[in-house]
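To whoever is covering the structure queue this week,

Two jobs came back overnight. Logging them here so there's a record in the thread.

Job A:
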Amino acid sequence: MESLWLGDIRKIDVMEECGNKFEDNIKWCVGDEKSIRVWKDRWVGNDPLKEKYLRFYLISDCKETMLCDIKSWQDNNWKWSLEWRRTIFE
């Protein structure tokens, strides 16, 4: 017997208004920051950040870094620590 959950996923996979592809209609839940590659995985929106922000990716010094390596929680705010090969907006 098929689970109700699997049946629902199959319905989503063929719905025209959802884009016809299940993976195009789900978002990552950033739970395991150690397995998410900042620039290469789709964790913000539908495209990897390297495709959305190619110019930043090209000057990044941390092209292979994982999400857990560039962020920290300090004083009730997220602090992002990206490294660049040159000064941005020169």
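Job B:
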Amino acid sequence: MDDSSARNADLSALRIDRSRKAKPPGRGKRWLRLLWLLVPVAAYFAYQVTIEKVTPALKVRTAQVTVLTGRDATAELVATGYVVAQVKAAVASKATGRLRILNVEEGDSIKTGGVLAELDNDDIRAELDLARANLKRAQADSVAAARNFERQEKLYKNGHSTEEAYEAATAWYARSVADVEAMRAGVRGGEVALENTIIRAPFDGTVLNKHADVGEMVAPFASASSSRGAVVTMADMKSLEVEADVSEANIQKVKVGAPCEIILDAYPEHTYQGYVNKIVPTADRARATVLTKIAFTDIDQRVLPEMSARVNFLPVAADTQGVASEPVTVVPNEALTTRNSRQVVFTIITNTAQETPVEIGRKLGDVSELISGPSVGETVILSPPGGLESGDKVEPTN
């Protein structure tokens, strides 16, 4: 190839290819800037999703907003308490000894003075026998002393005896009379000591608990670890009453003689009629409550001491046979809390807590009348933690 051909080839390589379309200037840079904007946004949303999945849900107890009807809705006040026997005793021995006889078991009924148990008392019986024998001897001596005194008195008056003999006879007679009284006192002491080994029922009642068995040592105050104090606990089942604490703020709603309804937790389907028997004239400073005692108008064998019960305090003029009443929406007291000086509850919506303001009316025991707030059937959180806020993830545990 000559020099002319080589130059033409080099010039042809420098020609512009008109078949290729030119890219608009700066388009690549705009995509790059857009990518830099999208990456942080996508990372933020990915972070939020990840945090939401990783953050554990707060485990909470829940309950539902419910409706009270009938007598529960009529009640001016509702309180909870326990059945308590007003006549109750832990019966113990007045003597110390080994339990020899136990005549009763739990649930047995016994009359006043009935023998519940007896301690070993052979030694006391022996001492009582000795005291009685000494009394007989003293009585015999007193008879001899009396006859001698009468004889010496006649002789002395007739001048056939000396003054010394008469005084000696008088002293012997007086001493013998005193000996008889002393021996009688000894016998009475032995009888009391023997009676102290016999444990009797102080009133008509039912044995609730047995605290000792035959063969165990029994002492009045159970001073030793190996001895027992009370042998049995008994109560008069006719004296059962419900003792319920009423808040100081509501005690003015309770009147002596006012009708009540008693619902035992053991038999929620049965209602017992009662009345306010007593308002104890003192308050519990720590709990700000006043103790009330509710007597049963009708009672049966199902009512037992220490059963838990709910008491509906009814209006004084209420018909105890039941009246129609408007239903009342209630919320558990445990669900109520305060946020920003207002009373609220926390409901659960799609596993998240939602703060809801409420307006509360009457306190009805463990629940309160709900004037405004969540609807019936909505789930509320019980005892919400102080740091709980709307939107927090929660997980019901019940």
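Note for Job B: DSSP finds five helices and 25 strands in the chain.

Please reply-all if you pick these up so we don't duplicate work.
Q.
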